[in-house]
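@here heads up, posting the sequence + SMILES for the 2-acetamido-2-deoxy-beta-D-glucopyranose run so it's all in one place. Ping me if the SMILES looks off, I pulled it from an old spreadsheet.
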Amino acid sequence: MEKISILFLSLCFLLVTSNAYRATMFRSSSSSTSFSPSPSPSPTPSSPSDNSPFAWKNGSSVCNPGRFESLGLDMEKLGFCDKSLPFEVRAKELIDRMTLDEKIGQLGDITYGVPRLGLPQYNWWSEALHGVSNVGHATFFDNTTVPGATSFPTVILTSASFNESLWKRIGQVVSTEARAMYNLGVAGLTFWSPNINVVRDPRWGRTLETPGEDPFVVGTYAVNYVRGLQDVEGFENPSDLNSRPLKVAACCKHYAAYDVDNWFGVDRYHFNAKVTEQDMTETFLAPFEMCVKEGDVSSVMCSYNQVNGIPTCADPKLLKQTIRDEWGLHGYIVSDCDSIEEIYKHQQWLTDTQEESVAQVLKAGLDLDCGMYYTNFTKNAVVKGKVRERDIDNALRNLYVVLMRLGFFDGSPLFESLHKDDICSEEHIELAAEAAREGIVLLKNDNYSLPLRPELYKYKTIAIIGPHANATDAMIGNYAGVPCRHTSPLDGFNGTTNVIFEPGCLDIACKNETHIFKAMQAAKKADATIIFAGIDLSVEAESLDRVNLSLPGYQEQLINQTAMAAKGPVILVILSAGGIDIGFAKGNPSISSIIWAGYPGEEGGKAIADVIYGNYNPGGRLPVTWFEANYVDQLPMTSMPLRPIDELGYPGRTYKFFNGSTVYPFGYGLSYSTFNYTLPASKRAMNLKLSRHQHCRNLNYTDGAYRPPCPSILVDDIQCKDEFAFDVQVQNNGNIDGNHVIMVYSKPPNNIVGTHLKKVIGFKRVAIPARESQTVNFKFNICKSLGIVDFAANHVVPSGEHTIILDNGVDATTFPLHIYLAKD
Ligand SMILES: *[C@@H]1O[C@H](CO)[C@@H](O)[C@H](O)[C@H]1NC(C)=O
Ligand SMILES: *[C@@H]1O[C@H](CO)[C@@H](O)[C@H](O)[C@H]1NC(C)=O
Ligand SMILES: *[C@@H]1O[C@H](CO)[C@@H](O)[C@H](O)[C@H]1NC(C)=O
Ligand SMILES: *[C@@H]1O[C@H](CO)[C@@H](O)[C@H](O)[C@H]1NC(C)=O
Ligand SMILES: *[C@@H]1O[C@H](CO)[C@@H](O)[C@H](O)[C@H]1NC(C)=O
Ligand SMILES: *[C@@H]1O[C@H](CO)[C@@H](O)[C@H](O)[C@H]1NC(C)=O
Ligand SMILES: *[C@@H]1O[C@H](CO)[C@@H](O)[C@H](O)[C@H]1NC(C)=O
Ligand SMILES: *[C@@H]1O[C@H](CO)[C@@H](O)[C@H](O)[C@H]1NC(C)=O
Ligand SMILES: *[C@@H]1O[C@H](CO)[C@@H](O)[C@H](O)[C@H]1NC(C)=O
Ligand SMILES: *[C@@H]1O[C@H](CO)[C@@H](O)[C@H](O)[C@H]1NC(C)=O
Ligand SMILES: *[C@@H]1O[C@H](CO)[C@@H](O)[C@H](O)[C@H]1NC(C)=O
Ligand SMILES: *[C@@H]1O[C@H](CO)[C@@H](O)[C@H](O)[C@H]1NC(C)=O
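bot reply: prediction finished. Complex structure tokens:
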């Protein structure tokens, strides 16, 4: 998201005074014609003084008597500062005091504030995808105040840990650093993260930002990360969720069916995603529903694209009806940056004027515009009778309640002591290393050639090869800030042994093969060779989808030839978000081991070295399918359906619907140990009794297949408290302590047409010492875990024999679970 010109950004960096002053500067170049709210904020460029009572000070809050006094205002008379009143009442009191022009001045992401009322300006746009970022207008780094913040691995790698408590813990650490930066006057309180779009297609350029291809895993990540960012300990579930305090505000984006960035000229600003109701419910909306209902997120961002011909930000069914009414959002809905302008200018959707576009999105339920369209055109939209002032009041109420929950008005005593020392602390940096270690996936390990035992390699020579061998910025990915420091792969090994560094390719594109020779010579000399290959933001990024699944340029030659020349074991380390067809290396006996390390964040090099030396036993699992290269020749990226389309020869998408061969499947991952499962007898059949008013629903079965008398039942119709549970004993058969993820899938009864092949219903990561075993228990709700989404987008539970699959990363243990549906 977030279109922004380079000029705009650089302007942002120059203006490192108070936020109020920066906002004034932005707008001063554009003194408005169509927009005429009374005075802009008081500080002028010539006096950007922090002494201005209006400027934002460290830890200050709106309802501060001293502030009002210096403004010549009596706070006692202002109901919005009356702490005895509920937030909604205070927000209404504030909004009722504003003129229409003043109200409109608060609807863009850089607000004007209302000097007359002592309401300061606020910049809504900050980002914290995997650490506090400087993308946006509110948050920045400089060498005097805060030079950097902890940069965790990109989300795709953190996701691969399948460790819910890690996901939440990272959120907590990021929000601690964010609060500290807010106290120092260099960050906002509203962060437009995480990105929870499902990776429908392996070419998607923003895969690195997301938790992968499974909607349930993505939703579970969202719930944990959002709770980590937002929750204030002890106030997680109060009776009134509209007054629940927030540490910082998170935002689940981009809603919805957003996953084409720029593919052969089809870009996100113009793309119309043609989506069936079935896919919408089952895949595209599911993580957002979890984010709102289970994560209680305080914001959702609508996307640039259209869904079935309607821009998402202008669709009342998607916004108001679904997010707010059906799911019960406590918070605000924001547009992706300049979305409204895109709707008017490029999509030209139903509208011939800017006012019309503004009216449409406001009425659809869009509260905040990242951009200038609300600011510039809402006045005329009201004057021309296209939208009611009441709609503006509603939007503002949603916004101010969130700011009140954040302590923007009353302060946040719990967080006011957070300071510079709370940013980039040793503990936080160590968590960044831990996250990378937990996510790293071991893909191949012939003859257990890894770990490299330090006693064998410590005083020997290791060749460090490949275009990512000294990766620094590449490890950080996008939506990053300035990291506390970098530990590149080279740094990770330097000092542990004699290192010969010979990149072999000058960059990721690797267009020049002449450098390969030196890499071969290094490998020939060394006792072990580690090749760091892969891709980076020059291949997969925002506004840049991939066109193939291969390594760029001469990278494959580099790997082949170095491996052939090598004297010792060869370890290939891939840095990427999306899967790469490395079938050539998988099948090559002279490459003994392969590791996927995502983009591993600021401590990535250390984490990789810890895994290779066996200081850490890897347990990560692939969060996306690694398809073979020809997969992308079989279907265009723009075809949205998840299910195969036989007439067009399109294979299905994601492990849930794709049945063909892969380089590595979703969920794959090895360890230096092996793990097996023992399942004690558990319940293998369940009866769901239907009441008199409940109907059996039909399902489509393959020709000639047995069709049960009661094929399925609608989930909405039943209470559905029924659960099934089991204990699994997990044995670590190795001589090394292990970290193991148990992934549980359900597979629907055979012969039902159009269902998923299987779906993840749960997972747990456990630490199991060498040669020991541990009992892990699972409990599932029948409807959530055995349900399918039928052709008409209903959640139904089919009767018949379901299969429960327990996947240890390599193979599976299964047991049947028979569901009987019967009338009383
Ligand atoms: C908003 O109005 C200002 C002042 O007229 C103008 O400079 C700016 O370009 C406008 N922005 C948009 C997106 O219309
Ligand atoms: C801090 O200073 C260094 C050296 O001048 C510079 O390279 C870096 O960009 C500065 N960092 C920030 C956040 O401005
Ligand atoms: C999961 O993450 C938590 C929080 O970082 C960590 O303490 C725990 O050891 C991790 N569990 C496993 C099995 O790796
Ligand atoms: C914020 O606090 C820091 C650290 O106490 C101080 O150095 C800085 O000058 C303060 N900034 C403002 C705007 O008060
Ligand atoms: C590794 O990268 C860093 C940062 O870009 C650079 O300063 C350093 O010189 C590089 N090391 C080598 C050996 O090229
Ligand atoms: C290894 O570390 C030493 C000491 O910090 C440094 O002088 C040397 O340049 C490093 N070598 C490489 C290849 O980065
Ligand atoms: C490849 O690199 C070599 C050595 O640096 C250089 O002499 C040659 O011109 C390069 N070739 C191309 C096509 O860039
Ligand atoms: C595959 O994509 C990469 C990255 O865009 C590009 O460098 C390379 O040339 C492509 N390879 C082929 C065979 O098209
Ligand atoms: C690399 O080696 C594999 C066999 O191990 C071969 O199939 C593949 O074509 C080779 N690739 C290149 C670019 O030489
Ligand atoms: C692995 O072991 C087998 C059997 O001992 C041997 O044939 C093979 O060459 C070994 N592979 C590697 C990569 O060492
Ligand atoms: C697990 O593996 C161990 C060691 O190979 C074996 O003794 C045991 O029977 C296995 N258990 C199951 C349930 O397969
Ligand atoms: C069966 O499939 C057809 C389309 O192939 C669809 O129209 C019909 O609604 C489906 N029936 C059920 C019960 O899902």
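MO: Residues 470, 472, 488, 501 surround 2-acetamido-2-deoxy-beta-D-glucopyranose (ligand 5) (CB under 6 Å).
MO: One more: Residues 438-664 form a domain with the Rossmann fold fold (CATH 3.40.50.1700).
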